[in-house]
Amino acid sequence: MNFLAHAYLSFYDPPVLVGNMIADFVKGKKSLVGYPETIQAGIVLHRAIDGFTDRHPLTQQVRNVFRLHYGLYAAPFADVIYDYFLANDDHIFNEDSLQTFARYTYETLHAYRQWWPADFHRMFRYMETQNWLWNYRTEAGVFRSIERLIRRFQLTQGIQPAIDDFHLHYDTLQACYQQFFPALQSFVKNFHTHQH
Question: How many CA atoms lie within 13 A of 113 on its CB side?
């Protein structure tokens, strides 16, 4: 999953949120050493969320939409697409509540900045100033995120096939999100219960 989903699935538990958000920048089991247990719990939760998401057949369907043009790189595209539908999920956010949630997330992360890995420091500056979490609500924001991935992976296809695939398969992508996300929420709540 991508940043908005990981933040939301921390369920307003600040150290878990921090661990969940920095987890991609913390590599291996040994790297957990030195973090408080509550932040470790967020890192472990992040990895569990990604494992559940990667194995789910609905995620494979979302990836297949982008696989023709982008191959294995369809996986991170799918994560970003899930964030778009989460940001637009009327059962979870409206414009104001998403903005409030984004601000809460940034402020919480700042309060724990002593635990940020160096690479997270660099990335977070852009996330906050460009308000990525709120911008997942717009198509333009999602396409900017995909464009960043395309640049990072140095893909020659450019953004246009992703835009075309998104519009052509919009209903399928939305239906996959609508079926998948409640299952993911249940998984996280269950996982959280068994960790305590």
Answer: 9
Distances (CA, A) of 13 to 27, 38, 63, 83, 153: 22, 9, 30, 20, 33
The answer to whether 69 and 157 are in contact (CB under 8 A) is: yes
Q: How many angstroms separate the CA atoms of 68 and 97, rounded?
A: 36
131: left (phi > 0), else alpha (psi -120 to 50), else beta?
A: left
73-84, pLDDT tens digit by residue?
999 999 999 999
Listed as ranges, residues in the chain with pLDDT below 70 are 29-30, 195-196
Total number of domains in the chain: 1
- Report field, pTM of the whole predicted structure over 0.90: yes
Report d(CA 162, CA 74) in Å as an integer.
9
